[in-house]
């Protein structure tokens, strides 16, 4: 997989998220209604895909809710003998990578290498592009992804399309935040569960 980037920077901004066939990020019961993702996230191909898209990144962007969920689960996985080796690799990467957390309510981010900001994702990414480093990846935080899509600041979309129709709940792609644009299919992998891991590069 080769990397793509904004014409003014060497750093690629990647948005990584799972979606249902009807474009939902969660179901009708609210933000925790995501059980339909689980069977597709634990397949070998999905785990390989996650390691592949995160390992080139030196900065991870997280919204408050995902930061709280990730920080409660992932840190200890790095040393869990019973965990899948790819999950341990992802955990080690996540523990050490620079993490920028977008929140106006948190007062502390105790996870190592995590910093809080109340600035907009588009502003933060614009500054990060001027700094040396690898890819900048958004980890499943839909509000951050929407802000960056609206600013045309995403270079690569990493979407795991799950073979489930949820029938309600929030969508990632809303008309009021998503402008028009063309994308090129860079890579795709079909998992044993029937999910498709898609990589789209922004055409500018």
Q: Keyphrases for this structure?
A:
204 residues; Dihydrofolate Reductase, subunit A; 8-stranded mixed sheet; 8 strands
Describe the fold and architecture.
This protein is of the alpha/beta class. The protein has one domain: Dihydrofolate Reductase, subunit A (3-Layer(aba) Sandwich). Helix content is 27%, strand content 26%. The chain is built from six helices and eight strands; from the N terminus they run βααβααββαβαβββ. The protein has helices at 38-41, 44-54, 64-73, 85-96, 121-129, 142-150; strands spanning 13-20, 57-63, 98-102, 114-117, 135-139, 156-162, 182-190, 196-203. The protein has an eight-stranded mixed beta sheet, with helices on both faces. α2 (44-54) runs parallel beside α4. The longest helix has 12 residues, at 85-96. The protein is globular and about 40 Å long. The mean pLDDT is 91.
Give a quick precis of the structure.
The protein has 204 residues and is an alpha/beta fold. It has six helices and eight strands, in the order βααβααββαβαβββ.
């Amino acid at each position: 997989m080769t990397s793509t980037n904004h014409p003014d920077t060497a750093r690629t901004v990647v948005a990584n998220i799972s979606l249902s066939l009807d474009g939902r990020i969660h179901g009708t019961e609210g933000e925790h209604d995501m059980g339909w993702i689980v069977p597709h996230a634990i397949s070998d191909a999905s785990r390989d895909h996650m390691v592949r898209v995160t390992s080139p990144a030196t900065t991870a962007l997280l919204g408050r809710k995902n930061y709280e969920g990730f920080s409660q689960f992932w840190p200890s996985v790095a040393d869990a003998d019973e965990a899948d080796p790819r999950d341990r690799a992802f955990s080690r990467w996540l523990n050490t990578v620079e993490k920028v957390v977008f929140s106006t309510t948190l007062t502390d981010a105790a996870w190592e290498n995590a910093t809080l900001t109340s600035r907009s994702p588009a502003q933060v990414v614009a500054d990060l592009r001027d700094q040396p480093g690898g890819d900048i990846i958004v980890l499943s935080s839909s509000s951050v992804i929407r802000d960056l899509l609206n600013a045309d600041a995403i270079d690569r979309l990493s979407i795991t399309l799950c073979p489930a129709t949820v029938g309600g709940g929030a969508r990632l792609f809303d008309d009021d935040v998503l402008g028009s644009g063309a994308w090129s299919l860079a890579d795709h992998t079909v998992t044993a569960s029937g999910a498709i891991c898609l990589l789209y590069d922004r055409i500018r």
